[in-house]
Amino acid sequence: MSIILKRNAETESNGKKEILKLRGMVGKQTREMEEESKTHVEVVQSMTMEISALKDELERQRKEQTRALHAFVRASRNSIRNMKKFSSEEDEEDEEVNDAE
Description:
The chain has one helix at residues 2-100.
């Protein structure tokens, strides 16, 4: 009977050792996965910041180009207005010359 008790004790001891070994492996894998997860989170946060910066830069460029376009349109309108004014003044001068002749 003592042989059976010894075997049971050995089996129980071996089982406890196996359980501890498995717990250690699970703990190690859990820590590795947590580190990977942290790394992924850091990468995503970094990419999010880069995307935000690019978005801000694009918005700034859009506003700058819009201002430039509006300035160009104003300048074009002024130029057309001045050309019409100059043309009508020339027409009036031509009419005055024709009337004088």
